[in-house]
Description:
Elements: E1 2-3, E2 10-11, E3 15-16, E4 21-22, E5 30-32, E6 39-42, E7 48-50, H1 53-57, H2 61-82
Antiparallel strand pairs: 1-2, 3-4, 5-6, 6-7
Amino acid sequence: xxxxxxxxxxxxxxxxxxxxxxxxxxxxxxxxxxxxxxxxxxxxxxxxxxxxxxxxxxxxxxxxxxxxxxxxxxxxxxxxxxx
Length: 83
Ligand SMILES: [Zn+2]
């Protein structure tokens, strides 16, 4: 069980958006909160911390693309739920 550092939402499942499977997160994995869409990263103890703009600037281009895609997928789902 992981808590989102932004909305305190309890995140039980972590969907790997490259494989489409539920997987255990690893330190350094990027995450978009299911509830609030906050961009987070797992720290060395596998706890979620918010991804600051400084941290985001240190990501590789691929990692930035990945979290952007994940966030856009979240945003589309949220729009559908909200309509
Ligand atoms: Zn959240």
